[in-house]
Amino acid sequence: MICLDNSDNLTHTNYIHTITDETMHHPDFARGAAMKYHIKDGIYDTIQQSQEPVIFDMYDLMRRRERPYYVDFFYDLNVNQLIGFAVRINNKSFGAVYVYVKEKRFFTPQQLQLAQAVCSHISIAISNVLAYEKIEGQLAEIHFI
Predict the structure, then answer these.
(1) pTM of the predicted model, to two decimals?
(2) How many domains does one find in the chain?
(3) CATH code, domain carrying 39
């Protein structure tokens, strides 16, 4: 799942996700996927501030009194760990890649390093898409005037 900061700089939302049948048939899937979440939720902001992958234990997250809804959602799906990678360009974070795994220690340190490198390329691709969308919007505005 890839989440990006919203223009209000206070919230983030789901940008791209792949889903299993189990996830799609969860009764709260549509609501959870469409929600805006606070950037400073203790998870998303921690990922954005890190230069390395961040691994969260879902059981520990569930023990937090204040937690975003997506923690409950994925805990219900028997996810054991959330692994997060910052989406950043020029040292500025603008999103996060979440990988939810059902088995603890599913990835080796080498696999996490590879995933971190892939996320760097994902960051560039998303930045290019967002720039293209912005230019398209500006061109449409110019043609409308």
Answers:
(1) 0.86
(2) 1
(3) 3.30.450.40
Range of the domain at 39: 2-144
* Closest listed residue to residue 31, CA positions, set 65, 82, 72: 72
Q: Would you give per-residue pLDDT tens digits along the chain (145 residues)? A: 899 999 999 999 988 887 777 777 777 776 777 789 999 999 999 999 999 999 999 999 999 999 999 999 889 989 999 999 999 999 999 999 999 998 888 888 999 999 999 999 999 999 999 999 999 999 988 887 6
Cβ neighbours of residue 77 closer than 8 Å, sequence gap 6 or more: 22, 23, 26, 100
CB 80 within 8 A of CB 103: yes
